[in-house]
Automatic annotation (TrEMBL):
Residues 215-294 form the ACT domain. PROSITE patterns: ACT. It comes from Timema poppense. One of its GO terms (molecular function) is threonine deaminase activity. Keywords: Lyase, Pyridoxal phosphate. Its cofactor is pyridoxal 5'-phosphate. InterPro entries: ACT_dom, ACT_ThrD-II-like, Ser/Thr_Dehydratase, TrpB-like_PALP, TrpB-like_PALP_sf. This is L-serine deaminase. It comes from the Eukaryota. The keyword Kinase does not apply. Pfam families: PALP (PF00291).
Length: 297
């Protein structure tokens, strides 16, 4: 496995008795190490995606989809190495050719998109991505959309899903598949190998994108009771203050003022907007942190 592989994935393989070799900066580098070992040791190398039997096994997902939803209109599938979508689409198209197959990949490693442009498999440089397992018509999704999808799956489906497995949901949430509205659609959610630390960061990022985690700076008078008055604004609106810090040395207003930076959690984007309006109504200097709009993802 490459050095960027999730620690949980490495440990789970060890728990099953595997001798895990962590080497290579990415999947390509790790594959080269495995191939070299195969040549020197005589052991059989099994590609994780570019293998007919692996793709045939993954194709059984397509058969299960048709067994459970014979009249399915479309299936949205994550694309990494291409084995999963190759197997599923082959099985589904063989039994129901009119089914629309849509592939989704991360913008940090759009290998399938580049291959379609070049007309052949190409090596695409990868960047650090929530969809580290990915690193037909296809959709490319942004990292913010993947984080939002991970959050939505945890909150609404009670499912812990890795970034690579959540890209199909990300494509829906980002509004790129509106053509599927009113149709019978299956999203393939293909993995839960995500470290707890990465999951925590993804959830916080998703909440920020959703407008529920907000960073705001307010300049108040530097006198007893002023910070308490500020906290009262949050309290009256029932906005949870998660972190508060005040600073004096870098305040541009005057030496009699203090800047209070607050990271807070609200119930919704509308709730956050109500807080911003209340702060701007009471204070002259209110500075917002990044407040992204999910409709632009």
């Amino acid at each position: 496995m490459p050095v960027i592989a999730p620690l949980m994935k490495i440990q789970k393989c060890k728990d099953f008795g595997a001798d895990v070799v962590v080497e290579g900066n990415d999947m390509f580098g790790a594959t080269q190490v495995a191939l070299d070992d195969s040549r020197s040791s005589g052991r059989v190398f099994i590609n994780a995606f570019d293998n007919v039997r692996v793709m045939a096994g993954q194709g059984t997902i397509g058969l299960e989809i048709l067994d459970q939803l014979p009249n399915v209109d479309a299936v949205v599938i994550p694309i990494g190495g291409g084995g999963l979508i190759a197997g599923i689409s082959t099985a589904i198209k063989a039994r129901k050719p009119d089914t629309l197959i849509i592939g989704v990949e991360s913008e940090m490693c759009p290998s399938f998109n580049e291959a379609q442009i070049k007309g052949k498999p190409v090596l695409v440089p990868t960047s650090r991505s929530l969809a580290d397992g990915l690193a037909v018509p296809q959709v490319i999704v942004k990292e913010d959309s993947i984080a939002l999808a991970i959050l939505a799956l945890v909150e609404k489906e009670k499912s812990v899903v890795e970034g690579a497995g959540a890209v199909s949901m990300a494509a829906i949430l980002s509004g790129q598949l509106d053509l599927l509205k009113g149709k019978r659609v299956v999203l393939v959610i293909s993995g839960g190998n995500i470290d707890t630390t990465v999951l925590s960061r993804a959830l916080h990022k998703g909440m920020a994108i959703d407008g529920r985690l907000l960073k705001v700076g307010v300049v108040v008078d530097d006198r007893p009771g002023c910070i308490a008055e500020l906290c009262q604004v949050f309290s009256e609106l029932q906005v949870n203050m998660r972190h508060l810090m005040h600073e004096r040395a870098w305040v541009k207003a005057d030496v009699f003022s203090v800047k209070v930076s607050v990271i807070c959690e609200s119930r919704s984007r509308e709730h956050s907007l109500n807080l911003i309006a209340a702060l701007q109504n009471k204070y002259d200097h209110v500075v917002l942190g990044e407040f992204p709009d999910p409709t632009t993802l």
